[in-house]
TrEMBL record:
Lineage of the species this protein comes from: Bacteria, Bacillati, Actinomycetota, Actinomycetes, Mycobacteriales
Residue ranges annotated for the SSD domain, each copy included: 529-686
Family, as annotated: Belongs to the resistance-nodulation-cell division (RND) (TC 2.A.6) family. MmpL subfamily.
Chain ranges passing through the membrane: 12-32, 178-203, 210-230, 242-261, 290-307, 319-342, 383-401, 532-549, 556-583, 589-608, 629-651, 657-680
Keyword field contains Isomerase: no
One Pfam family cited in the UniProt record for this chain: MMPL
Species of the source: Candidatus Corynebacterium faecigallinarum
Subcellular location: Cell membrane
Top-level taxon of origin: Bacteria
Name of this protein: MMPL family transporter
Primary localization: membrane
Amino acid sequence: MPHAPDARKRLIYGRVFSVLLILLWLGVAAVGGPKFGEISEVATNGQSAFLPESAESTVVVDRLEDFQDSGAAPAIVVITTEDEGNSGASQVDPAALAGLPDQLATAVNEVDGTTDSMASPPLPSEDGEAVQIIVLPSEATAPADAVDALDEVLGTGLPAGLEAQVTGPAGFSADLSAAFAGIDGLLLLVAVAAVLVILILVYRSPFLPLIVLLSSMVALCAAVLVNVALARAGVVMINGQIQGILFILVIGAATDYGLLYTARYREELKRHDSTWAATAAALRGTWQPVLASTATVIAGLLCLLLSDLASNAGLGPVASVGIAAAFLTSLTFLPAVLALLGRRVFWPRIPRQDDSATGGTAVTRDGIWARIAARVERGPRRIAVGVGLVLVVGCAGLVTLDADGIPTSDYVIGQSDARDGQDALDRHFPAGSGTPTYVLVPEDNRAAVESTVAGMEGVQSVDITSGNGTGPTVVDGEVLLEVTLTDSPYSDEAEDTVREIRGGTGDLGAKVGGTTATELDTKDTSVADRTVIIPLVLLVITLMLAVLLRSLVAPLVLLATTVLSFGTALGIGAVIFTLIGFTGADPSVPLYAFVFLVALAIDYNIFLMTRVREEATVHGTAAGVSRGLVSTGGVITSAGIVLATTFAALLVIPIHFLVQLAIIISLGVLIDTFLVRTFLVPALTHMLGDRIWWPGRPGRLGRPSAPQHRRRGHFWRPDVTSLSMLRAKAVWYSAQSCDLRQVPRYDATAEPGGTIPFGGAASVLVFPTGGTGSVFYALVSPVSPVDSVDSVDSVDSADSLAMADAATSVLSAPSADAATPAGSLFSADQAASEPSEPSEPSEPSASCLSVASSATVRRPRAAATPMSAIPRTTQPSITRIG
């Protein structure tokens, strides 16, 4: 066999290439692994850093250094007695704390070896029950490090009977840093462990889940490596929430893509004796839908670049890098590892080659997905209405959703020293003390602005920044006012006061900044981002789906159902938030949830509808929906459970934003997986029929565009109507108007002994044997209803066309006494004649063909008969009947 050496060479080359590919990815993982510890070095969690430079609060923050010795976030130490509230026993003596400020400043200076940190003298409250000390750390000192140093001094340097909490901007920043500290370890551990359990249940194998998870971790290492480099170069911005989302997103997406590939790979192993051939076939069947999914998710994420918040805009490219890494490893590293290890990775359920396996996924009446598909097909309207009503009822919870933002003091769930300190500050001092609102005003308008602000409700006092104590500090013709509010700087009331200050002093050239103003600008910018990005995401994904599905109707249906499931998840999530005591939601929560749910959940509809379109090309839309649902139901459901579980892992991070996001996205993915993709989309597709593909259609006249159809001897597909009887699919034609060169490849699955009615002077049934390229031809005439059933193995294009033309000539003969009997098969060396234009359909008459699908009848081919010896009285042409 001359091709054997070439086959061996290809096998060797394939193994060498796979080994090199695996080593390359392992090298990337080895370099990227240590970069996990560097993410915190390039991350920032300060709100003002994420606002655009044009934001009013950002302008003020940038100018603070011109008026103050330190622009660092202040830490407020609040000292009370352990018996706070008891008359007499709750008084705090400031004199006993006279030396404490120097100790605090010295401790903070020792963190980075600076001398810039300062501390105010003890400031007693009016009721005498509390003392506050304001500490300004060096700008070089991280807030979390400064708070740790303060806690160490306060733990040992306080007089007996006193206790202290550290609050203020530095205190809340330290709480956030402590909450995010679990991302590198705990979050990854929980996510990986949960996914591993699910994969073991799905694969029922001890080895395959580990390989899929290894591929996911390689993808995560690659994503971290690239993103850390981009962050150091100043291309992207990373914070704690982006870091957590990146980890979860990469693990979930890479595992999903791995599930899709391994499912197809298992199918192909049953059709091929070689794992390399199965790998090639699995890649051919997987890369297009996975690439479409990847492109859709990335397109949706990149829409975040239009956000004015750097925290939102930063997520777009960072997460896109992660999705790209998941795609590349799932279709390069994972296939290479599986191909090298062979079938044994599926142990104990090792797939063996099955010669009876068909060219597509087997579809039977057995199994839960077959039963679901049958139920949807029987009553699509009832199911669509029922599921739609359930989703609409879930949307009713939206009326309880408050997504206007939450105070910084509520960002951390559970114990918070900063929140406890702020509560103590609110009880004994003006709530805004220590965290003033800054008003930058032209010197000429200082008096007018000062008097206007001082007379506003919600303002405790107005002070003027003075560098030398003799007069206001003037920089570039402007002065800085420090406004102490009566309400907590993190409260809605304080934000209302800031709005009033801006409204009353804007005409005088004043600009308002500070902690409260920064929170207010962040919320307003987030709300504005929603109105821009959500419509853009819908538009971009609709256009991509239109290109992928070659339809305008299908994308609208898929987007509408996905948006409905998003509304349901958001509504149910809002009810859950109320039940567990959440006061509201960050404005970015609906935006992030929408982007991820639409971009990720639409993936499963892409996987479903691309398979439906593939099946509809051969079997029609109605059958294509059922076959597509059965063939993809198990793997897509598993992928949905994996993705929902990975996002649910965010619940272990005690951050308000991430917990809410985890609840909404996990709910949305499960709703889309079990209701929308399983019932609603198939039901709507059944109801619309071929209109779902408008203005295109699943199949077209002419030669197939894919070259493998010609190589495997598939016939041209005509525009005909198929009959469905006794679970059979067939196409039948009038004898005097049949051009077999246009007979499509169909399957017949009638029970042994079942019958399929045919009509016309003679009829033709064509269907595959289920082997590799074999085709049955049953040629029937009025004289002899069933002459024979023959099998032709490995038919190529030229051979099939010649035989089809010869058979057409037989059927076009004036009688069964022609030179060549009906039912004969002709050799490939016979000439082919050109088909004529279609003629008008003729009225069929009843006849019956019995199909025994359990047996294959073989006989030698009939002797070749010259085409000229076959009488031709009419030109063959297609008649559509059905």
